[in-house]
Specification:
Elements lengths: L1 H11 L12 H12 L1 H5 L14 H10 L8 H4 L11 H10 L4 H4 L14 H17 L6 H20 L7 H6 L3 H8 L14
Length: 202
């Protein structure tokens, strides 16, 4: 509620409402939450597939609000058996592991990837965001220029790098379907106020 209130009242309405805010309210709300609650915003329960113990829904709620499960377990006990999964995204894990001297094939075998290209669960999240973005395009709520330009540019740059050095750079599919690529392309870059209003980007 704090992030939403700050985004609407301070980042949008204070500047005169819709059409007058100089910054993306959603991003301002996120930054406020990140600064106000850094530990809560950056601590995550391990993925179901790699968790030593699988928490129930009530355990997750209690962990969020009290820091402990009903049985007295804490975040450290839920992470038992997991080694080295503390990065923000699969791409960050990929970069860190490559700098540590691992090959691309070794990196993709890490638990955070679970044998899939974009990281455990990330490809499904991005496919869902892509479906939502395509729905917005179909409804004509957003124009195609910004998301297509972003995705094509990212895909081309990733492809060029990967073609020259496939043993040290992530594939284009990994760049497109991991992290928050589709969220950024369809929901952040197309913000009706802070995005470009012309086809040329002016």
């Amino acid at each position: 509620m704090l992030g939403t209130a700050f985004a609407v009242v301070i980042a949008k309405q204070l500047y005169g409402g819709l059409g007058h805010n100089p910054f993306n309210p959603a991003m301002i709300g996120y930054v406020v939450l990140l600064i106000s609650f850094p530990v809560q915003m950056t601590s995550w329960l391990p993925s179901y597939e790699i968790a030593a113990q699988v928490p129930t829904f009530s355990d997750v709620l209690q962990m969020i609000f009290t820091g402990h499960t009903a049985a007295g377990g804490d975040m450290a006990s839920l992470r038992l058996g997991i080694d080295g999964v503390s990065q923000a995204t699969p791409l960050d894990t990929f970069k860190t592991s490559l700098h540590a001297g691992h090959s691309v094939q070794q990196v993709l075998q890490l638990p955070v990837y679970g044998g899939v290209l974009a990281g455990l669960g990330w490809q499904w999240v991005n496919i869902a965001w892509l479906a939502g973005g395509l729905f917005l395009l179909w409804q004509k709520a957003i124009r195609w220029h910004i998301p297509v330009s972003f995705l094509v540019s990212l895909g081309l740059c990733a492809t060029l790098g990967w073609l020259f050095s496939p043993q040290s750079l992530a594939s284009p599919q990994m760049h497109l379907f991991s992290g928050a690529t589709m969220l950024g392309a369809f929901f952040i870059l197309t913000d009706p106020v802070t995005a470009s209003t012309t086809n040329r980007g002016a």
